[in-house]
Model the fold of this input.
Amino acid sequence: MRGMQGEALKGHLDLLLLAALEAQPAHGYAVVERLRQRSGGAFDLPEGTLYPALHRLEHGGWVTSEWSDETGRRRRVYALTDAGRKRLRERQREWRAFAVAVNHVVEGMA
Amino acid sequence: MSGGKIEGYLSELRRELRMRWTPSARFLEETRGHLADAIAAGEKQGLLREQAEQEALARFGSPRMVAGRFAAERYRRLEWMMLAPAVLVGLSIAWIDARPHWDDSGITAGMLVIGSALLGLGMSRRAWMIALAVGVWIPLDLIFHATGFGSAAASLLILLFPLAGAYAGMGLRRLVVRSGD
Done:
């Protein structure tokens, strides 16, 4: 299956990134891997575009980050803040309502 | 990581970020780490080093696209904020131009070009926004007082001056950044 392209994901990127960081902190590449694994390989974003979004989330106070070299490689590790968890809950609620509404329309038209 | 391809990519990315006045040190270090992880994962899956590098770079995205996205995120608000002084400059020029005894179109055109160029220096993209904010007022005034469609349409040609200025300002900034490499 051809992966989902960036434009389709753009509006949902914040939610995806917050969800990817929910379980535990991660560096950028691990975030990409989580998204890829959880989506069954469907999300095919240019990986470099995740960093501007992560930096924006950090600027907004939803994510915090610090350098770590635990694995012998220097990595910037991102973690959700309390505000980020709250934001995630809000976005999840919005997403569920949106998905239900779209589903009703699409299934109703099928 | 010592691959020439990776270093070449990073230096291209640095240049693209600088052209957009986007701080690059932290992001470049993150990119280096990300690519190292991606290459290691590729090699683990059986790819040759060169193939793994190629795939990692392709997945990361072109330097121009990545830097553009970074600048867009960073300067989205700032670029909208630049519109306020641009509108102020534009209205001032339009006010001067509308004064009853003002009869020097050359100076008006010069002010439109220079004002837009100075403001364009602050833009990493969308210089046309500055051009419109500076230059739309005189045509609007002329259209409002125009006697026919021809003269109303012709007044829009005035926008060429701020457009030239704004893009010249943005281009000059890019040249300065490029010459610093």
